[in-house]
Fold these 2 entries.
Entry 1:
Amino acid sequence: MKKLIIIFLAIAVLFTFYWYSGYRQHKNDDLPIQNGRDSSDLTEIEAMDNDVIGEGREQDVPDFSIDTKKDEKPPEDLAEEMAATGSASMPVEEVHDQLEEERNESSAQVKKSVLLDVPFISQAPKADWKDERQQDGCEEASVIMAIRWIKGGKLSKDEAEKKIIEISDWESENYGNFHDTSAKDTLERIIKGYFKYESARVS
């Protein structure tokens, strides 16, 4: 029985030794070859590198640089060219100033109301609606108010009624009627023709 145990242990030791030796050999065979060089070449290269470093020699380091396009110009030349050709955009400061100015203009206070001291009269100042000239005297009355506001002063009912009748009669005599004139006809006939304001215009 003892002999069998000793033989078994001897076989186990031999197997273990054989397996370990084969594993190391297989590991060395699998080492990669770099750039067509085997492990002995790599060892020589490492030795050479160590010698160079030990002697304090300077190694040549590749100079890496980014090549620019031949047609590309430096920023200074581009700025001068853009300024000369007018292709440069507006500077940021000018844009800011312009926007600030526009904002100030838009935020300017606007009066809620504007009061023009225009004397008011109706087309029939004394309510004589039987007179056809006063029934259709709205254009004449409007011009009379505007002219009096330009000249200044007040306007009485008697004066307004008299003026409306005079203008209507003048229109009938020169144009054949006084009914419902357009803005253009009112300008040409009454303002320019009757009152002689040649520079007046309708906007």
Note: Residues 51-58 have pLDDT under 50 and may be disordered.
Entry 2:
Amino acid sequence: MLKKQFNSYFLEGKLFLYVFFLLITCIYGQKEYPSFDLPSECSASEYFDYSSLTCRACEINNAIPDENGICSCKFGYYINHVISSFYTCTACDINYSSTADRKNCMKCTYGYNEEQKSCTCPVGHYIVEEYDVNENSYYAVCKECPENSYPSEDLSSCIYCTGDTKPALIKGKYQCSCYDNILVVTLTNLK
């Protein structure tokens, strides 16, 4: 009896595999299989669509994908609602940049980088978005970073240095650096 059940399951299993491979052969023909992209193969203007396993471009003009694969307007453009959930990205005027949520444009009160369509601030400052109720408009206001911190690359916040480090502007970029009186040992010094 046990041997009969085993043979029955074995035959059903063989039948399942036979049907499975027959379907695969019919669907994909002469050993042609669909190609899939890898997330690392997507360009900066594409996002990885996990449902189709392919790289796709954002369908909205002047939109780029964020780190979560969600298309949003580029910096310097704002979301212009045309019809309910459909929107386009519209460029902000010169001396204006987009707010962080890309829903509005804000006036640059200190300086403006036309190439990047972004507001600028003096060294050691970051941007705070402020809304003026009377004028119904947004402004980019430059605020100084607190002691022992420096502005993030996009000027949206300040980054704090920890331990025995302090902010330093090296080759045009901020980073935390050791104080002068602390010896830094690297692998090259150990040779």
Note: The CA atoms of residues 95 and 112 lie 6 Å apart.
